[in-house]
Amino acid sequence: MFCWSRYLLWLVILVLGTSSLLTACGQKGPLYLPDPASQQQPQQQEESKDK
Question: If DSSP states are collapsed to H, E and C, what string results for the chain?
Answer without folding.
Answer: CCCHHHHHHHHHHHHHHHHHHHHHCCCCCCCCCCCHHHHHHHHHHHHHHHC
